[in-house]
Amino acid sequence: MKVSSKRRGSAVGMMAILCGLSLVAAACGGDDGDSDGGSSSGGKQLVYFMAPNTTPTRYIEQDGPDFKKALEALDPDIEVKFVNGGGDSATQLSQANAAISAGAKALVVVAADPNTSAGLLQAAGAANVPVIGYENPPLNGPMYAQVIFDPYKVGLQQGEYFKSQVDAGVFGDGTVDLARQYGNKGDVYTTEMLRGQNEVLQPLIDDGTVQVVCEDYIKDWAPDNAQQAAEQCLTKTQNQIDVFLGFYDGNASGIIAALQGKSVEIPVYGGQNPELTGLQYMLTGDQQDDVLKAFSVEADAAAKIALAAINGEDPPSDLVKDSVNNGTDDIPTAKLDTTLIHLEDGKDPGEVVQQAVDLGIFTWEQICDGGPAADTPTCKAKVG
Prior knowledge:
The chain has helices spanning about 15-20, 60-75, 90-100, 120-125, 150-165, 190-205, 225-235, 250-260, 275-285, 295-310, 350-360, 365-370, 375-384, and strands spanning about 45-50, 80-85, 105-110, 130-135, 145-150, 175-180, 210-215, 245, 270, 290, 320-325, 330-335, 340. The strands form three sheets. A seven-stranded mixed sheet has the order 2-1-3-4-5-12-11, with helices on both faces. It has a four-stranded parallel sheet with strand order 7-6-8-9, with helices on both faces. Strands 10-13 form a two-stranded antiparallel sheet. Strand 8, helix 8 and strand 9 form a beta-alpha-beta unit. About 40% of the residues lie in helices and about 20% in strands. The protein has 13 helices and 13 strands. Helix 9 (about 275-285) packs antiparallel against helix 11 (about 350-360). The chain has two domains: about 15-150 and about 295-335, Rossmann fold (3-Layer(aba) Sandwich), CATH 3.40.50; about 150-295 and about 340-384, Response regulator (Rossmann fold), CATH 3.40.50. The protein is an alpha/beta fold. The model is unreliable at about 1-40 (pLDDT under 50).
């Protein structure tokens, strides 16, 4: 087996923190995340931000609060409420029906499971409540519009960087034995990311430069499912893997946990949708790359789209310039840009991760507060 420099780190649990936030009330025991039955305060117009689960953590910690701040700043007569689907489409449908009954003027939805989300869209459509799809949108039903960081471009960026490493001989001579992990099977985001990755990688696979030894769809994009899949792959191949390529930081953290559990050193690529763990593992050298997304930019775009929907206007043309078929309709779509960062020999990893800090995704205090990176030279220099 060909190996790279030593990788160390540990997966970081978030649930204890998340249960203290209103967005995850459903996942931590509440029915819909609302303590007041859904009524607005002061007769304001209600808009619901519907998070899919507690993973990825971004919807709880960043997108949701950023969306609330942006929309309520655009129109102080609007009140944003949060619910969390707990990874279950039936729960999310129930929450949507409750929101509609409470008088919601719009629903901003990150689908708990896009494959089984049609009922939510049908219910909202029947009630003439506009739905704005957000990042991993619902499928097979009417929607007003959606906003996403272009998943095809994300996959293309990951594939191009990985190919550059293959071309540079980073994984040694001969065929590169590759283990791949994808997202939740059937998600538009998974399908489009895979299309982007494969546009670059399939020629390498076809000519024998790369051999895929394992490939797994990771249910709910969950890190524990990624860890289990990685453990099974390591067992199947007797650890004879040159490199792992994932879809997202949750894949990477699960893979890294599996590698650490078996004391195996194999490089991990394919980070995106940055989480604290991803940036921390870049500082420790366990994760090689990440695709950055300015979450606040997406939240601001969604706020402007939601306001147009409430006001009965067309989606704002300066944002919504594309369309994506969701299985039923061509949905007006705002596609946002992403940036890939990666570790480089001889370059301080702190300089690389600084790009995420500059985009406002996380602060150095958050990145360095416990977790695998706390004792790195970068964190000692940044926060002491």
